[in-house]
Amino acid sequence: MNRFYKNIFIFTFVAPAFLVLIGVVFYPFIYNVVISFSNMNLRHIQDWQMVGPVQYVKVFTEPTEPNFYVIFLKTIIWTFVNVFFHVVLGVILALLLNQKIKGKGIYRTLLILPWAIPQYIVALTWRGMFNYEYGSINIVLTKYLHLPAVEWLKNPTEAFLACILTNIWLGFPFMMVVALGALQSIPHELYEAADIDGASWYHKLKNITFPLIKPVMIPAITLGIVWTFNSLNIVWLVSNGGEPSDNTHILVSFVYKAAFNLYRYGYAAALSIVIFVILLIFSLSFMKKTKATEAAY
Amino acid sequence: MTSSKNKKIILRILTHLVLVIFTLIAIYPVLQVVTISLRPSDKLLSTSLEIIPQNATLKSYVSLFTDQPFLLWVRNSALISLTVTLTGVALAAMSGYAFSRFNFIGKKVGLLGLLVTQMFPATMLLLPLYLMLIYLGLINSYLGIIITYSATALPFCIWTMKGYYDTIPISLEEAARIDGCNQFQAFYKVILPLASPALVITGLFSFMTAWSEYIVAAQILQDTQLWTLPLGLKSFEANMSTEWGLYGAASLIVMIPVVALFIILSKWLVSGLTLGSVKG
Prior knowledge:
The structure holds 2 protein chains of 2 kinds. In chain A, 74% of the residues lie in helices and 0% in strands. Chain A is mainly alpha-helical. Chain A has one domain: MetI-like fold, CATH 1.10.3720.10. In chain A, helix 4 packs across helix 7, helix 9 packs antiparallel against helix 12 and helix 11 (251-260) packs antiparallel against helix 12 (265-296). Chain A is globular, with a radius of gyration of 24 Å. Chain B has helices at residues 2-38, 59-66, 70-101, 107-117, 122-136, 142-167, 171-178, 183-194, 196-211, 215-220, 229-238, 240-278. Chain B folds into 2 domains: 2-57; 62-278, MetI-like (MetI-like fold), CATH 1.10.3720. The longest helix of chain B is centred in the C-terminal third of the chain and has 39 residues, at 240-278. Chain B is built from 12 helices and no strands. The interface between A and B is large, with 91 and 89 residues.
């Protein structure tokens, strides 16, 4: 095939997707950068002007209630707690499922359910379950465990906890399935050899299982952290847009509110970029670090 | 000997116990939706924990189809989701192939750029797209929402397809070429059928993105005639006391096909995901 023909071939294959991506990803991204340096908001939607890095200064210094640093801290807690439980529960369940047991297929199918259900239904249903009077969680607490009922959705800490609980429930199946896939690819001979050497289950876990599932888990965890950091659905819908009084926000829900409830377009665009840069720096350093350990192993 | 046998039995029981507890936790919210959908309208708010409520009735289901614009929402959601799926799969199948097989200017930057979009917070593209749609007069239109959903789904789809093509040996195409196929024939006669698992995954992913999306739709589709299922269901939830039963019934109907599809395809989903993310 001559060169010219090949180039046309590549062009027809790549061009449509590239045009679409330039239109719906690249151009909006540039536009977002432009807006972040402007004073665009509901009053200045047509006659906006470039005002320099004013909006960025506002992101870091404006005394919003709560302010950027508090929300940033909450986002870190949110991400860490969620991903921690996703991985721990996911790996434990995968280890249990990776034995010869009855009903394995049924357990596996039912345990995937939280991942399969559309997120907005998950969020709205859990919001119902957290209802003070009629929600099943409080009914179980008071009727069966004889504990006092909890005001899940009206107090800041409890409402944030409610979001986290919902998200933990939602996220463990992904890690479970990934870990299960990794476990199944470990050759059986390794465990047999360890058995002959009289290794205990703890040593097998530490010296065979964990090192061998690590290469698969690390990318999954990176993805999990990025997804959780940016997950808007659960926080927005369980807390009904940050209730009570904006105390349940993580960064993405806070910026969503600034953009679409408060119409502060310039500010929201600047905050979006700040969030993106935080995630980019984190992901790059995380991947570099884990790559380094991988090479060592 | 017997003590080690006993130990094994105890371990087995413990394993099942833990699995049963987690399974119950996993399915409970679904059962809760079933319960809500079956409650008679005077008992919507109840403090009973029975799965099948007293005087269970299918009235919510009937009223969903007769008094509510539920079928309109189904139609809108199906229309939007199918269009997004078709565009997504077609574009990703072609460009993923080029990314996997050829070297061209901008390839590395393109691939890296696609990966980086996964770190965008939702508002990063939503806000400028929203403002662009206002200028173009595309707010409250199917086209507006289809464009926005494609922007979310496409990067992931291209990566998945590329990752899968990478695992198909290039010798297969060379063999086809020797047998007289041109490059394009080699692609759609040999490679595309082999890549069908990845096509299924990208299709499923695009479909789910559009079918289950609330946040974007809430901004772009304000006309109730254009509402998709998530917007409709949220409106039931908003006045919890009166329409809670409708919410339950609708959720269950919306959930069942997606969940069934997801569970059937979950095996491929994971291999596609890890291939796409592990392979560079």
